[in-house]
Amino acid sequence: MKKSKLYKYRKAFKVLFFLALIISYVAAILPPDLAPHVERLSDKAHHVFAFVILGLLFRLAYNINYWKALLLLLLFGGFIEFSQYFVEGRCSESKDMVADLIGSFIGLKIYKYLRKVI
Known about the structure:
The protein is an all-alpha fold and 118 residues long. Helix content is 69%, strand content 0%. It is elongated, with a radius of gyration of 15 Å.
């Protein structure tokens, strides 16, 4: 990784990435009546937003290949969907995986843009 201004914050980005990972997983597997919900956003928007954040933080925290990051984020999304299968009131949907993929793609592209301008 070319040492950019972002490099000196890598440890902080790692902490933020793991916090975001834990928070997104816990929020995804809580029963619906306990899970946080933003009234104006759909379930798919929640997925996209969470994975934009995860994708961006993942690349900021680690020197990882774009495709490997995309694959790992998609696997995490699959793990969430698998976990939801076992939570009463939750269901796993393939559309959620598509939303996760779109969010990951956007987050990784934002990182690419940041690297160019910073």
